Amino acid sequence: HNAKIGGYSDSVGTKGLIYDMRLWDYARSRSEIAAQALLPPNCRIPGGAVGMWRLDEGEGGTAGDGNVFNPVTGILKNNATWVDATLPVLYASGENLTIGAQSHPYGAPTPPYGVVEGLEQGSNFVCSVTAEPQYLAADGRCRGVCSGYLWYTNAACAPVAGSGNSFDYSHESSYPMSLLVWQWENQYEIEITAGVGGSVTTGTSWLAPDTTVTTTAVPDESARFLYWAGDVTGEQRYATTITVTSDVPKAVEARFTFESPVQYVAPTGSDGNDGLSWATAKRGINAAFDSLAESGVIYMAGGNYPLTQTISFEGRSDVKILGGYAGVSSDETPGARDSKKWPTELDGQAAQRVIYLTGSSRIEFEGLTIANGRVSTGFGGGVEVSASSGIIFSDCLIARNYGGTSASGGGIALRSGAVVTITNSMVRNNDIQLAATPARYGGGIYVASGTTLLLVDTIVAGNLLYAAYSRYGGGIYSEGNLTMKNCLIAGNSVSGSGDGVLIGGGTATIESSSIVDNGGQGLRRNSGTLNVINSIVYGNGNNLIGSANVSYCNIEGYAPNEVSGIIDVPPLFERDYYLAPESLCRSAGSGTAESRGLGDYTTQVDGTAAADAVVDLGYHHRGGYALEAADIYVSAAGDDSDGSSWAKAYHSVSRALDEARDGTHIYLAAEKFTVAGESFPLQIIDKLGVVLLGAAEAGSVIDATGSGQRVMDMGHSAGILLQDITLRGGQRGGCSGLEIIGGGGITLRRCKVIDNYSTSNNNGGGLSVSGITLSIYDSLITNNFVTGSTTIAYKGGGFFAAQGVSEIWHSVISGNRIVGGYAHRGGGLAFAGGNHYIGNSLIIGNRSTTSADGVYVESGTVIIENCTVVGNNREAIRNEGKLSITNSIIWGHAAKPALVGTMAVGWSCSEDDLTESGEGNICSDPLFVDAAGGDYTLLENSPCWNAGIDRPWMRGALDLAGNKRRQHDRVDMGAYERQPAPGTVLLLR
Q1: Over the chain, what is the mean pLDDT?
Q2: Of 36, 118, 231, 711, which has the fewest CB atoms closer than 10 Å, so is most exposed?
């Protein structure tokens, strides 16, 4: 009565199982009864879940019913209510045999899976399953093989085990209900095949779970193994021998290619071609690479090759990739070649690195452009070379590659013992920006410790490394073994140390090279050994920092030494860094050009070879300056044909700049160039030695009014001159006049930057420059306007400089404004970092929303000498960096004090009483001739007359009006030197 059926918790072998049922004359507590009616793991009864039941009515609930028992502990719940069972019960009333399966119910046993009812004592029959493997219907790649059976009865706790695939069953009264479970061993199909061109040592296998099989790809005699396709891990993809684990069904295929010593690639080709001629060329370099013999040559026709994956050389040797071919099918292969006429560009599409080499040797790249590569982290936006030797890049352009937040080596990176030669090439206009921690190195080239780079006849220019953390080497950073011979390093910038070249360790030897016009520091040694000979280091913000072994060089700011051949004179460059005939760098080196390997090279525009003469200092070109596009003319009066003369002049400056190459001079007529014919903003990007010359008397006006754009963008350039040019009418968010990011040796002479309107969020309404060396002479920056953010402080209504080095001479900064609802500062000029100089200039009538109406120094070092700072609304100058003022006049400001912050002021006149805080200061009305009329020259009785302190630069210098700077015993204060009164001339007869 009300007896319970279940597995008694103390019954070994039946705990938690309703296989071996016992009937007790008393009920155990529910904690003693496990009611989780499940078969052993992976065992199934056909029809799904098993049932639970009770004797009195034969009703039950499905196993796993949470209302009946705890599915985790298997303990019955109090007062469980069971619904009628709709599934087969584990044991029905009466005498029976249940047939089940462990793993999967494979095949069709006899009797079939389920319950054999109505058995009587003495009944006997054979239970069996097939000995053949049985497959699952789903995909046929999983099967079972019968390994025996287990027979459970209520005569014993433990089952009877058998190893065969048949069982003679005889029904006895001692076990009226029993269970026969067929034991199936799972097996997975591991399909191993070989593609065309080879075989495998082990083919397709059926394996038990968690076992392995090893196989090797064997190429045919004329083929080469490429990789494994299918279910193979990344580490094994390129290994000839692999091990496959049987955890699920798998398929792998060995891929092979028929070796060819040459492959041809063309933009019009197809990867389905055999690549054995231009007519049957492949389309992609990766496809050609797969079909190439272990050693060989890939010929590439000119064109753009967009990459979808990096070109990887892993464990390869003796391969050449040669670009610059015409690729004409009818030509005798490989045919005509000119890398400038038919440039071959491997294009990373700003999505991946272009080339990666590891564990390779004797790989040569020639006549290629490696561009638009990108890495967010790691090394080498364009190229990374690791643990490889004999790698050569010849006649290559590595350009426009990018490294992101945690990258080093924007153009190319050498790591892990790499040995590389770069010759007759260019590494230009590569960027690493927004880089965060850790420290970042090498905007153009990164040479890690333990690597070797030979850099010969190569230009490294216009590379940029701007980072929020420590950053070193805008052009080149080296901790390895660096040899530079006959290289030009120009226009590189870094927001840290070593704009041109930074030596951070190892050994560096620099010979016959020019490190010029870089953004801040030309050449810096932090550690290691540095040797420099027969070179020019000039025109950088700081030229040589750190100790070095130097001989026969022209180094700006370095003590001349006749014994060691060191001079400090302007090199007098022409075009793109040729030497002028009168340059003192000519024949100033050690040894002859021939002995230095430069006998066939030249430093002269006309191409005169150096031959066996004493070698010139600095970079030597392979030939003279070509006349094509050397000079371009722009005028509405021309016929807009080729720009080679006034008669054939182009009609637009935009077109002239597009056609300009390094060293081009562009001549503008005395005209206004407007949105009607120009495409704004005009761009001077990645150029060396370009000169833009306006009409000397009337000037030439580039007016962007109505374009909604900035007037001009400039960047990644060096040796650029704008002369007699007016830039006006720009209007946009950000700088609207001229913005320059990265570069060096930029000069504005007799230029005007006027009436530019920045509509939002900007530093520098008229000019904004970052990380460059800039010189402004005899120019006017006026009436530029910035309206700024209400939440972010912006700086510099007229001019803003971040980092770098700038100098402003004989110029007027007037009437510029920066307004808005926040702490905007520096109505006239603003500086943030770097080193800057303002001399002989007038700063007048500028205005800022909150403070620093005239000049704002947020950080960095600024020197102001012989300037007149007058009438700038409230504050004249505010300093939060390092500022010194000498020989200057600061007068006519509403705020008191007019000079805010700590600064060194000497020999100057100020409305603030600084007479006790600096030598030579006065606090008296400067007595201008006509301040209301804009004449800030001094009256005869001015206290500023003859009251300054002389500086070496004043010898032969002129004041802002073009008069002799020093007229009397001492220099005057301010931008204008008082001229002596004309004398009386007596004529005697």
Answers
A1: 86
A2: 118
Based on the domain organization, do 576 and 563 belong to the same domain?
no
Residue 211 near residue 130, CB atoms below 8 Å: no
Inside any domain, residue 805: yes
Q: Please tell me whether residues 456 and 432 are part of one structural domain.
A: yes
DSSP character for 371? E
Q: Could you give the CA distance from residue 625 to residue 579 in angstroms, rounded to a whole number?
A: 11
Domains in the chain, number:
3
CA distances from 254 to 87, 188, 205, 430 (A): 50, 20, 16, 39
- The secondary structure of residue 981, as a DSSP letter, is P
Q: In terms of domains, do 450 and 579 share one?
A: no
β-bridge mates for residue 632, sequence order = 666
DSSP character for 656? Answer: H
Tell me whether residue 979 is in a domain. Answer: yes
- Cα 371 to Cα 679: distance, rounded to the nearest angstrom: 25
393 phi and psi angles, rounded to 5 deg: -115, 115
Interior/surface letters 338-375, b for 16+ CB within 10 angstroms, e for the rest: ebeebbbbbbbeeebbbbbbbebbebbbbbbbbbbbbb
pLDDT at 982: 64
Q: Give a yes or no: residue 68 inside a domain.
A: no
pTM, two decimal places: 0.76
Chain centroid, CA 564 distance in Å: 42
For residue 343, say if its preceding peptide bond is cis, omega within 30 degrees of 0. Answer: no
Contact 181, 39 (CB under 8 A): yes
Range of the domain at 931: 789-989
Model confidence over 742-782: pLDDT tens digits?
Answer: 999 999 999 999 999 988 767 889 999 998 999 999 999 99
Q: Evaluate whether residue 579 is within a structural domain.
A: yes
Same domain, 602 and 539: no
